[in-house]
Amino acid sequence: MAITDTNVTQILDYDVDFKKRRIYFGALVQGHDENGSDFTWRSVERAIRQIHIMENEAPAKPIELHMSSGGGCPYALLRLYDVIQSCSCQIKFIGGGEICSAATWIMAGCDERLLYPNTRILIHDSGWGESIAPGKLTDHYIDVDNEKLLQNKLNSIYADNSIMPVDFWTEMVKRDLWISAEEAIMLGLADKIIQPRKRGSLRKNRIASMKVNRDKKDMSKLLRLLKDRIYMDKLSKLELHIPEEKFDKALAVDNTPVEDVPAVVTAP
Q1: How far apart are CA 225 and CA 240, in angstroms?
Q2: Quick one: 166 and 42 in the same domain?
Q3: 28 neighbors 69 (Cβ within 8 angstroms)
Q4: Does residue 120 sit in the same domain as residue 233?
Q5: Is the pLDDT of residue 9 over 70?
Q6: Which region holds residue 253: left if phi is over 0, alpha if psi is between -120 and 50, else beta?
Q7: Structure pTM?
Q8: What mean pLDDT is reported for the chain?
């Protein structure tokens, strides 16, 4: 696909690739609020508009939601969750890095949920009650009742989109719970791990470099220097090893000279 001004601007300035039907959430331009949240009114409303544009253009084609997020406002996540549930398009969630708090409910609610292998997922309660300001006792009771209703709804979303019942999630969210991608799949919160490519075909120079014999005296000297640099008294006996690479014939390096490659157009 040729790179154009419009395409680059959409991806870098608006976190969307309309041609490939991809929305990037929690990344560059979506930004954070003063508390470091990804799920803000602005970020969610932008994602919703992007979903509506793609749904109107091709109601039967999937939309990819690429996310790495520290979480944010539970009411913003419920807004996005409801739009996803009412969308005629299949919504594919593709998560990596951290999927925390609000992002976990969006992950759970998407139609297909894929995770990169090193993804870490943080599950806990909404935490919204922490922002309740001191005031009249009756007002406090009202806020607490609303917080309970919110948390019950969020626990139900987990249950409706996993193999575990509400009672399980009610207990789990009482403390910060970090789980792996594999554990998320076991619980039914995600469906598949995106497997890494066999990269040996792209690493011929790297493999050759690692196989070059190192002078043992030079290596010993280097390790002593590094040990002293971090003020370590002793260093365990180490043996060098060469990582085992797997090869994929479908991967190849394009060695076309740079001057013959069309220039990449950058956003203004």
Answers
A1: 17
A2: yes
A3: no
A4: no
A5: no
A6: beta
A7: 0.83
A8: 86
| pLDDT tens sequence across 13-43 | 678 999 999 999 975 444 444 445 688 888 9
8 A C-beta contact, residue 21 and residue 63:
yes
**Domain count along the chain:** 2
Give the residue from 169, 174, 143 showing the smallest Cα distance to 158: 169
Please check whether residues 149 and 36 belong to one and the same domain. yes
CATH number (domain holding residue 57): 3.90.226.10
Domain extent for 242:
200-260
Q: At what angle do helices 41-57 and 74-86 cross, to 10 degrees?
A: 10
**DSSP class per residue in 184-227:** HHHHTS--EE-PPP--GGG-HHHHHHHHSPPPHHHHHHHHHHHH
Question: How many Å apart are CA 30 and CA 50, to the nearest integer?
Answer: 13
Amino acid letter at 124? H
Among residues 200, 239, 202, 201, the alpha carbon closest in space to that of 219 is found at 239
109 with 29, same domain?
yes
Task: Say which DSSP state 244 is in.
Answer: P
